Amino acid sequence: MTKSISLLEYGIKSDSIHYQLSSDELHKITLEKGMGKEAASGALAITTGEFTGRSPMDRFIVKDEITEAKVWWGAINIPFEPSKFDALYDKVIAYLNDKELFVRDCYACADHNYRMDIRVINEYPWSNQFAYNMFIRPTEEELKHFEAEWTVINAPGFMADAAVDGTRQHNFAILNFTKKIALIGGTGYTGEIKKGIFSALNFILPVQKNTLPMHCSANVGKNGETAVFFGLSGTGKTTLSTDANRKLIGDDEHGWNNENAIFNFEGGCYAKVINLSAENEPEIFGAIKKGAILENVILDDAGNVDFANTSITQNTRVSYPIYHIPNVQRPSIGKNPKNIFFLTADAFGVLPPISKLTPSQAAYHFISGYTAKVAGTEAGVVEPIPSFSACFGAPFMPLHPAEYAEMLSKKMKKAGVNVWLVNTGWTGGPYGIGTRMKLKYTRAMINAVLNGDLGLYNYDEYHIHSVFGVAQPRQCPGVPTAVLSPRTTWNDDDAYYTTAFKLTNAFRENFKQFEAYASEEIRRGGPQRYAF
Questions:
Q1: What are phi and psi of 389, to 5 degrees?
Q2: Residue 247 falls in the annotated catalytic set
Q3: Is 252 designated active site?
Q4: Which residue has the higher pLDDT, 168 or 233?
Q5: Which position among 18, 63, 104, 317 bears the catalytic label?
Q6: What separation in angstroms does the CA of 125 have from each of 10, 17, 42, 154?
Q7: Residue 385 confidence (pLDDT)
Q8: Residues 111, 255: contact at Cβ < 8 Å?
Q9: How would you classify the pairing of strands 268-272 and 247-250?
Q10: Residue 105 annotated as catalytic
Q11: pLDDT at 529
Q12: Which of 105, 165, 243, 252 is labelled catalytic?
């Protein structure tokens, strides 16, 4: 029998409310309503409508007594008036009163000392199944005493009137820290649901609990040592952290607490599936089964997914509960973090494939959050474009990036963590001339770090890069020595240094926005030489 629940405390008077439905029930209802199809693997395939990704310019934070003096306001954290929020909230509630609703109680943060209890109210059944996948699922016993701290109200079918409601256009995702509500409307993209809560945690944990939130993946080895992987889209964060020889803690959002433990915020994974194959990413491929939700993919008549088809979007995705991955850490907590990897796909081909960072360099590169995008071809010319996202997750960070970097730097020093910059991008020249770094070499370098094969820094075993100032190892098991030196792979010193200086200037130009906030130590962590 379907459980129900009263939502009168939110002003919702709908007489059709489903509470805590199972994944299978939500899957079935979605199919019955014609809102999705079942893939041959058993997974549910849906389309998210107009929006197939986040809309950063339509993300707002209510500016009030809690946030006014602490949030880094600007193009990333856009202020919203409390009175406008209240008026828009009332309109969304009136809209939902006429709808069949799906409600789920769940929580974020695997470490119970930091646990946030969440109620998710959805207009669509598959959105509620996404919440089942992505947040942590309470036991029946835990539900008996459940009191939601935060609430997500998700109304994809509601369209705002920008002129009246104070939004930019008809869609919106608004955080209200006083009322502890994430209000989402006008978009079916499910990522807004999880990112709303995680953006809230990225404020709450450092401000109220002295805990560092991180947009990263993490795994733990048989020796109990935890590794953390930061990286923007396309750098290999999910691929490299999913390792048959190590237990996965989580693939996207974690906290680093005062007890020197890393804990997952999530209860599931939300992976890109563009060009996914069983050969390259067997764990993720195998997780796509009953209970998983495929977003914006194309199925053939037999229900098979064409993972190369990007006719809807390049941001095709799958969500699944973390237990769909066979080799996971239970609970999702890792202790003794020893190595952090900053992953970057350098399309200029000038960064070393792996290099060791000092604490000040680590803070600088963390604030910078560099990777590179490849532009389209115009008149036969392909030009890489530097791309920076502070803390490797700027769209979700309410505080100034320097605050997160200072916390990271202190934790690194206290825990004795090694930080490595790993270039999964190009070697032998920039995009269009060089080639992409072989995955087997990147894995060999990461394994060498985790096995202790690269040893401690010294001048015999490491070379200081003359432009970036980072320490690159001279040798690494399983990797040709020439590959470790980007300059050597170019065979053209003048072209190499010209391109390297071009990238350092892009770093420096990007960092200007942070200089007034960053300490002298952090500022010294960047490349020091200028191009003339």
A1: -135, 105
A2: no
A3: yes
A4: 168
A5: 317
A6: 20, 11, 17, 11
A7: 86
A8: yes
A9: unpaired
A10: no
A11: 56
A12: 252
The model's pLDDT over 218-269, given as tens digits with 9 standing for 90+, comes to: 999 999 999 999 998 778 888 899 888 999 999 999 999 999 999 999 999 9
Span 505-526, average pLDDT: 90
Catalytic hit among 238, 355, 427, 499: 238
Q: Give Cα 358 to chain centroid, integer Å.
A: 24
Q: Letter for the amino acid at 216?
A: C
SS (H, E, C) 243-293: CCCCEEEECCEEEECCCCEEEECCCEEEEECCCCCCCCCHHHHHHCCECEE
Please give the single-letter amino acid code of residue 154: N
DSSP state of 224: S
Q: Using one digit for the tens of pLDDT, what is the confidence trace for 262-300? A: 999 999 999 889 999 998 888 999 999 999 999 999 999
Report helix, strand or coil for 325: coil
pLDDT score for 236: 87
End-to-end distance of the chain based on CA atoms, in angstroms?
A: 74
Place of tokens 């649901």: 193
- Residue 300's closest CA among 524, 39, 46? 39
pLDDT band (50, 70, 90) for residue 303: very high
Pick from 515, 525, 522, 513: which is nearest to 76 by CA?
513
Quick check: is 47 catalytic?
no
Q: Which two tokens stand for residue 351?
A: 């960064």
Q: 137 an active-site residue?
A: no
Catalytic residue among 59, 194, 237, 400: 237
Catalytic status, residue 355 = no
Does residue 330 have an active-site annotation?
Answer: no
Q: Tokens at residue 156, please?
A: 């994809």
237: annotated active-site residue? yes
